[in-house]
TrEMBL record:
GO terms for cellular component: extracellular exosome; motile cilium. Keywords: Repeat, TPR repeat. This is Uncharacterized protein. It comes from Rotaria sordida. One of its GO terms (biological process) is cilium movement.
Amino acid sequence: MASRAEKIDRFPNKIIINISEIQNLKSPKAEPLTIFLRFEYNDGQFSESGKFDITDGSPRQVDHNAVLGVNASDPVQIDDLGQKPVLITLFEAQPKDKKQKEDKSTPIGQATLDLWPLLKNETQIPVTIPVYAIPGSYLETQGEQNQPSLKVNVSIDQPLVPVRDQSNTNAAYITLEGLYSPPEAWLAGGTTFVYTATLPIPINDDKEVTVVFTNGTLRAATDVTNKQKRWPDARGILTVNGTYILGQNINEESIDDEQGELRSKDDKEFRTNSEKTKPQVVWNIERRCFLLPYGSQSLQHQITRVPYLPVEIVRTATPTVPKGKKDEDTGISYHGVAYIETAPLLYPGATRLRGAYKIVPYNEAEYKSKTKRSGNIVDEAMRIANQLFDRSSLNTSKKDAKLTVDKQAAAGAATSMAKKKTELGEESSSATTEAQQYIESRSYITIDIVLDRTIIEERKLNE
């Protein structure tokens, strides 16, 4: 007989994902193509459809229900819905031969499904989502004009956030765009590196999340940068287009409208020059944090008590081993901090904080003084980043992810750095020397924080 504990459903809230039909999917051959769908979330599979045939690209009825269980009372699971999409992968099923024990299957396309609207009081999400071709599959030959799609309806019996709590919740959308005017030593080439940024966000009175932006890449200013916002957790995504959040873009905005540190006339000229001519680290990641009931009050208390939000930045060597194995060669270097003054979010009616913030070397005393925290969060962030790192880049080369620097520029950077090390003196630690380069290069980040609701309401004239 099962115990009472075994009978308790750890995931009582059931999200039903119905795929009613596939549109514009054609067989590349004269005979029908047999396919099936696999559903994954949070790095794990939770459903798989039966097999069915497709032929000429006309709508194909599927009517498969995938059930995803979550626990709406768990703050971590609720937070995950804002940063992790459901992955729906299309497989071509090939009949097994006599020597095989199981059928062969080949992934041909993948779609990403965003469940964030379920935290916005929605109980039904009808949507049509594109299927992106997996590199090397026949779908690449169909072209964007003939892109397949899935007709989806997401439903749930009861809102994930109880009606009584909905008016007390909030959400923060944090977009880290890039790091500009990086240290000259980063341009020398050779070893490849990954760039990670992290900051803490309180989601209720006794819980905070460590927000991590990883997979930052160093790019030349001449590279065309896609301004679509990317998913913070891209594990399992097999296509480049799938890493972008559908319909979310970064728009060009005037520096005059910002609240950051670098807004003077000289700053504007420096930033324009840096962003147009110098290499830069690109993230373009949006991290959505759902602030649980009374989350706004928690955020208000945090800002009032500690007006500075630390964004820590580090550089590590690109991991060279599969996930789950220890990599001894990814030492942390260039530990810097940008201190974001968040007081403007307490202005009546304010819902946005956007700007450029200078990076300074991490200094433990300064960090504790400005943040009132006992220590930094880099170790926790790197543990998370190691899970989120896009290891597909270990096996495939990405055209726009590498910085090309000519030999003369690399030699100039190396000579300049050697001179600076001499000027700083041998007794300076390598960590301090490295981080000092942020100041010498006038490095900065651009970040955008948007809230669904104001923390302090703007009073009306009649009040």
